[in-house]
Design brief:
4 strands, globular, single chain, alpha+beta, 120 residues, 4 helices
Length: 120
């Protein structure tokens, strides 16, 4: 199942050489794990609800194991401080949904659990 690395980053007011180096080198850390950028910064976004002050980064991986392998890899761990010293934000790894995912089935399961007094 596809997994994703998502980041909501707060862009710096001044770009530093370390940020350029991070951006230049990140793809080489993704390649061994099948990672590819799906969204990188989203400068042309349309916020339709709420606020989105940061920059969105979304990277796809073949599996959660591949996503974890990338994030925990020595190559990426070496790069992280180049970003975090200048661009704070939130980063998470998440599983996607399986092919054929049916949100109506999810709603039915939640409805049944709620009716029986179970946790939603």
């Amino acid at each position: 199942m596809t997994a994703y690395a998502l980041a909501n980053l707060n862009p710096p007011t001044v770009l530093d050489e370390e940020v350029f180096t991070y951006i230049e080198r990140i793809q080489a850390t993704l390649d061994p794990f099948g990672g590819r950028f799906l969204v990188h910064g989203a400068p042309d976004r349309e916020v339709r609800e709420g606020e989105w002050p940061g920059a969105l980064v979304m990277i796809g991986f073949p599996s959660m194991d591949q996503a974890r392998g990338w994030y925990d890899s020595p190559a990426y761990q070496e790069l992280i401080p180049l970003r975090t010293r200048h661009i704070p934000g939130d980063v998470l790894l998440i599983d996607g949904v399986a092919p054929g995912y049916d949100p109506a089935a999810t709603a039915a399961g939640l409805r049944a659990a709620t009716a029986s007094g179970g946790a939603a």
